[in-house]
Amino acid sequence: MTRWLTILITLVQGPAYVASLGSIGIPESAFMMGHTGLFYISAVILLSTGSIFAMWLGEKITDKGIGNGISLLIMVGIIARFPSAFFNEINSKLAASQGAWIMILLEIVLWFAVIVATVFLVTAIRRVTVQYARRSVIGNIKSVGNARDYIPLRLNAAGVMPIIFAQALMFVPGLLAQSDNETIKAIGLPFQNMFGFWYNIVFAIMIIIFSYFYTAITIPTNKMADDLKRGNGFIPGIKPGHATADFLDTILSRITLPGSIFLAFIAIFPAIVSKFGIQDNWALFYGGTSLIIMVGVAIDTIQQINAYLLNHHYDGLMKNSTTRRAKI
Fold first, then answer.
1. Judging by beta carbons within 10 Å of its beta carbon (0-12, 13-18, 19+), is residue 292 exposed, middle or buried?
2. What are the residue boundaries of the structural domains of the chain, listed by start?
3. pLDDT greater than 50 at residue 143
4. How far apart are CA 279 and CA 86, in angstroms?
C-alpha cells in the first residue's frame, strides 16, 4: 500500500515540480525540451522512476544494512549540500571584513550549540513510573513482586512531522501572491519569502498546532492504559483504566507545549540567523527539517549499531559458555 501511495504522490507532484522550475530562476532552455505533452509525460515518468528506485534502494539498505534506508538517503542528500554552503559562507566572510575568522569561529560555535539543543529535543523524555503487582521475568524464574518500570514519553513525540505539515500548508498563502486581485496579492506577498517575519510567525504557530494534533494521533493513551491493566501494572496513586489514560493525556499536554515551542524555535532559527549576515544556504543548517533529520537519523543509527554490537557480544559469550560446559 505504501509503495502504491508513493507512486501516486510522485505522479501528482511531478508535473508541479517541472512547472515550478521556471519560477525559481532556472532558464527554460536548461530543462525544457519544447512545450509539448510528450516532454511533460516523459519528465514525470523519469521523476517517478527515480523516486521508485530511491524507495527500493532504501528498503534494501534497511533489510541488508543498519538503520532506516530512506532516512539515511535523505540524510546523505542533506549532508551533500553542507561543504558548498560552508565554503561559500567562508568566502563571503573573508571578502566582507577583516575580522572574518572570528565571525566564522562564532558561527561554528553557534552551530554546535544548535546541534546540542536539537539532540536534547530529539532524545528528551518524561519518565512515568509504573509498578507491577506481579511480574514474570524469563522462563522458570519466579515472579518478582512490586517490580517497577517506567513509560518513556518523548518531549517531542511528533518528531519532524509538524514541520513537514506546516511547510506543505505554507505554500497556500504564497499562491495568493499570484492573484490578479491587488488586495489578495498584498496578503500573499509576505509569505513568499521563507525568511520573512510573517512567514515565520505563521509557520511557528502552525508547528505548535500540528505538534498537538500529531501527538494526539500517534500516542494511544487509552491503549497504553488497557495494556497496563492487562499486565497487572499501574501508575502509583492513579487508578487503572480510564483514570490512567486521563493522567497520561495530561502529562502529554504539559510536555508537548514546551516541546512544540522548542521545535518551532529550531524550525525558524535559520530565518533568525540569516538576519545577522549569514548566507541563506548556510543558515538552513542552523535548524529546520535538515538539522532535525540529520540528528534524528544519526542517533537512531548509532543506537542500532550499539544494539547490534551488544547482541554480537552476547552471542559470543553464549558460545564460549557452551564450549566450556562441553569440555567439562
1. buried
2. 66-327
3. no
4. 9
- DSSP state, residue 21: G
**Burial of 317: CB neighbours in 10 Å, binned 0-12, 13-18, 19+:** exposed
Q: If you search the block for the grid coordinates 504522490, which residue do you land on?
A: 9
Return all residues near 229 (Cβ < 8 A) that are at least 6 apart: 240, 241, 244
- The DSSP line for 221-258 is HHHHHHHHHHTTEE-TTS-TTHHHHHHHHHHHHHHHHH
Q: Return the C-alpha cell found at 242.
A: 480510564
CA 79-85-86 angle, 5° bins: 90
Percent pLDDT > 90 in the chain is 16
Integer angstrom CA distances of residue 289 from 205, 236, 253? 16, 38, 23
User: pTM for the complete prediction?
Assistant: 0.76
Task: Flag whether pLDDT at 261 surpasses 90.
Answer: yes
Sign of the alpha-carbon torsion through 187, 192, 198, 199: positive
Q: Could you tell me the end-to-end alpha-carbon distance of the chain, in angstroms, rounded to an integer?
A: 55
Residue 222: burial class (beta carbons within 10 Å; 0-12, 13-18, 19+) = middle
Q: Flag whether pLDDT at 19 surpasses 60.
A: yes
Report d(CA 6, CA 11) in Å as an integer.
9
- As a residue count, the chain comes to 328
Q: How far apart are CA 187 and CA 177, in angstroms?
A: 7
In one-letter notation, the amino acid at residue 159 is: G
The stretches of the chain forming alpha helices (DSSP H) are 2-20, 37-64, 69-80, 82-96, 100-123, 161-169, 171-175, 182-188, 197-218, 221-230, 242-274, 280-283, 288-327
Question: Topology of domain 66-327, per CATH?
Answer: Preprotein translocase SecY subunit (1.10.3370)
Among 258, 245, 165, smallest CA distance to 213 is for 165
